[in-house]
Amino acid sequence: MSGKIIDKLTRFGSIIILLFITIIFIFPVYWVFQLSIKPPQLNLIEPPAFIFTPTLDHYIYTFISPGKNLINLSSSIIVSTAATIVAFIFSFPASYAFSRFNFKYRNSLLFWYLSLLLTPPIVFTIPYYILMSNLGLRGTYIGLIIVYQTFAIPLTIWLLKSFIDAIPIEVEEAALIDGADSRTILLKIILPICAPGAAVSMAFTFVFCWNNLIFPIILAEGPTRTLSLATFEYFTVTGATWNYIATCSFINILPPLIIFLLLRRYIVRGLTFGAVKG
Amino acid sequence: MSDVKVVDLIKKFDKVLAVNGVSIDIKSGDFVVLLGPSGCGKTTTLRCIAGLESPDSGEIYIEDRLVNDLPPKDRDVAMVFQNYALYPHMTAFDNIAFPLKMRKVPKDEIERRVKEVAKLLNIEHLLSRKPRQLSGGEQQRVALGRALVRKPKVFLMDEPLSNLDAKLRIFMRAELKRLQKELKVTTVYVTHDQAEAMAMADKIAVMNNGKLLQYDEPSAIYHRPASIFVAAFLGSPPMNMIKTSMSRKNGDLVLDAGAFMYKLPKEIGDLVSNQASSSEVYLGVRPEDLLVSVEKSPNSVFSAEVYVVEPQGPNLVLDLRVGDQIIKALTPLTLDVKLGQQVWVGFDLKKAHIFDGRTEATLY
What we know:
The structure holds two protein chains of two kinds.
Chain A: H1 2-36, H2 57-64, H3 69-100, H4 106-118, H5 122-135, H6 141-165, H7 169-178, H8 182-193, H9 195-211, H10 214-219, H11 227-232, E1 235-236, E2 239-240, H12 242-262, H13 264-271
Antiparallel strand pairs in A: 1-2
Helix pairs in contact in A: 1-12, 2-12, 3-6, 3-9, 4-6, 6-9, 7-8, 9-12, 9-13
Chain B: E1 2-13, E2 16-27, E3 31-35, H1 42-50, E4 57-62, E5 65-66, E6 77-80, H2 92-102, H3 107-120, H4 136-148, E7 154-158, H5 166-183, E8 186-191, H6 194-200, E9 203-208, E10 211-216, H7 218-223, H8 228-233, E11 240-249, E12 252-256, E13 261-263, H9 266-275, E14 280-285, E15 290-293, E16 300-312, E17 315-322, E18 325-332, E19 342-347, E20 353-356
Parallel strand pairs in B: 3-8, 3-9, 6-7, 7-8
Antiparallel strand pairs in B: 1-2, 1-4, 4-5, 9-10, 11-12, 11-14, 12-13, 14-20, 15-19, 16-17, 16-19, 17-18
């Protein structure tokens, strides 16, 4: 009997702890959201006003009129989506090669990719600024998409490689004997099998691109300015316009959130892909 | 006519010689088992035939065509893997249909042939399922179906039954054999299970350390093993090897096992002493060929002490201590013996073997 009580207590305790952790994570999101619909005069009062009449004014001001943040949102979507797709197209065959072929300097090359992820992006800013200016790509979508590959390709390769590693080589050998060529094996066998992995790696790459601020700061101009950059610009010399920052931030949170909710099933499967035998 | 011919096959991995000069001639329609302990080169040999490994030297022929440089898909072979290697994202139907799709067979014919194979394997009701929704035995059948559907020249099987539980394994072993006889497709089958090899094979190729030791019919391998290794690898419990030293006494050749002496008849003694490389020879007798009795009888050769008694269904396996060696004997359950009891053991020399202690080759 006492065992059952202990079980219940443990369960209760773990629920309390989980609830606490969840609140810690959710609270900032809530705070940003309530700021985005709060009349500005209530922003900084003590104690904070939890009950107030919500307003959509800030959304209208920033995104519709006179603000032009809708353009920045579309720029974020275009650049992040394109960068993710480009990274996947290059990384999928590359990660297959890293997983299956034993070539010279394979591990050094893999480590080099990892080092690109570990390097603080600020290191790249000046060379990229000069490079993109000389190429005439500063202030273009293409320029940003190319520069995002600095981290998008290494990230995708490392994630995809672990998923391809988990596919038994016999499956490919069976296909080889069944009459498939390398292209068929890659596209009709490997790609569908690691689809959950591909979804996970693309989701992560997308979020990395979406959250990037440093490259747009140096390269984006006019309509190519991304939403995170536009948000950043509400910190003005005369002070921070908190409500506008909050509206942009909240909209900025949504796409990654939606992606992870949509792909939740795959992401859970993808994260346990290597651990569980197929 | 030979369907598959392997000539002087050599395959190295880095510096390890995985296959060392193996030659096998496989007749059309035969079921050949490559048998040996793990790491003996049997799987590598099979993979060379499949085209998944390229040999360092030697030739491989399929229906008299040299296939060394042909990719697997052009060799017209089908393979069943130990872990089945089904395509996890395809249904059983699509798995079986895959080799046909790759060969651009028309759709209605694919449908017809997949159904035909499914019927043969009793998996018609499973065709719409994905591999992970199938049991091990069912996955095995789908993998077989994928191999069968193309009607290949040669079937290659790499321990296909080893992932099944014991009961299903024995059932599938019979099924496979019936199927192979029905379809008359030349089959090369790799296993480390000697009972499986004995049960299924038309011919067994026993391998060890990359070398082919003996290639013959199962009964010949069992009754006339070419070396100590082959003799000890087949049979359960394995053949007893009694260490003896050979000497001449009054012109007769005598084997001295320490605990007993055994006099060889003249013609056999001459045969053995002419071939032996040293005086150290092994007397090999299978457990079922040892005659154990409580009383001394005319064919008793030596006495032994009962060390362990293991009842196994219809038989008893006795561990007997002879001097400082332990040998195993298979006797009927009716023999009433106790631990520590002295018993008499005899054997018929016609069913015994004599091996060279140094070269391990069979002398008699």
